[in-house]
Design a protein that fits this description.
It is built from nine helices and nine strands. By secondary structure, the chain is α/β, with parallel strands linked by helices. The strands form two sheets. It has a six-stranded parallel sheet with strand order 3-2-1-7-8-9, sandwiched between helices. A three-stranded antiparallel sheet has the order 5-4-6, with no helix packed on it.
Length: 268
């Protein structure tokens, strides 16, 4: 990257006592990959958007994530790992693809408040409990995708307690079970307390205005009150930072995935 800003950020991360990372919508996996799949397009036509089959799509997304190979997200996450390696960090991610959990980043230092594909829940959240992925349902969808099983043979997994459909624990279900992230959110808030009046480098990567009260606004407030903190906001469209942070608010107008692709760990 020709811009000196990357070298500046590398140095800030290296010298900081703490590093806080926020991953937003621009960091999420591009599900348009499904639309490039001919079989997926066939499935869309066959199901015709019928309500009784809407549960299938997330299973196909899970399939894509399990089968993916090295791509631009792999590179970006590996470079993020290299950039913050050895630092006292925490990562808050709005991404629901669970890509981050396949990295070497410490799971105890990650919180994903929008959920993901790791657990399932009752659509009504009748028991406030999460369950494991029913592998038999996943395998059935996989067989259907391979044309080894007809559509009419698929059975939606349901809650054993109330009979409602089982859904991946993500925002968008009828009653989202926050129990999936609250434990690590508590760890995050405790970690934040330890950053008060300490050198803190805040990296905001691709965070827009979809859920601004989770990362964007709180991160600005953290830096505003901690005079030893600095915020770097990397976004392709919403890179702007208000003037109240002064020279402790720096922005980069770039796609965050591409931006991290330029990172050279050997220069850190």
């Amino acid at each position: 990257m020709a811009d000196d800003r990357l070298s500046e950020i590398q140095a800030r991360v290296r010298d900081a006592d703490f590093v806080l990372v926020g991953l937003g919508e621009e960091f999420a996996y591009d599900w348009n990959a499904l639309l490039q799949d001919a079989r997926y397009r066939e499935i869309e036509e066959e199901t015709g958007g019928a309500q009784e089959y809407v549960w299938i799509t997330p299973f196909l997304q899970k399939m894509i994530l399990r089968q993916r190979r090295r791509d631009r997200w792999t590179c970006a996450y590996q470079n993020l790992e290299s950039m913050i390696a050895g630092k006292n960090y925490f990562v808050v991610s709005l991404c629901m693809d669970d890509y981050i959990y396949d990295t070497a980043l410490d799971r105890e230092k990650i919180v994903t408040p929008c959920g993901g594909f790791r657990k399932m829940q009752c659509d009504r959240n009748c028991s406030h409990m999460l369950t494991e992925l029913p592998e038999e349902s996943y395998e059935a969808v996989l067989q259907y995708y391979r044309k080894e099983l007809p559509l009419y043979a698929l059975r939606e997994p349901v809650c054993e307690k109330c009979g409602a459909g089982l859904r991946f624990n993500q925002l968008g279900v009828t009653r989202y079970a926050e129990e999936g992230y609250l434990e690590n959110w508590s760890k995050y808030t405790k970690w934040l307390q330890g950053t008060v009046n300490r050198s803190l480098c805040v990296l905001e990567l691709g965070v827009g205005m979809e859920y601004p009260t989770v990362i964007r606004f709180p991160f600005e407030k953290i830096v505003l009150y901690n005079q030893k903190a600095i915020l770097y906001r990397i976004h392709s469209a919403l890179w702007q930072i208000g003037g109240e942070l002064g020279d402790r608010g720096c922005s980069v107008r770039e796609d965050p995935i591409d931006w991290l692709g330029w990172y050279d760990a050997g220069q850190a």
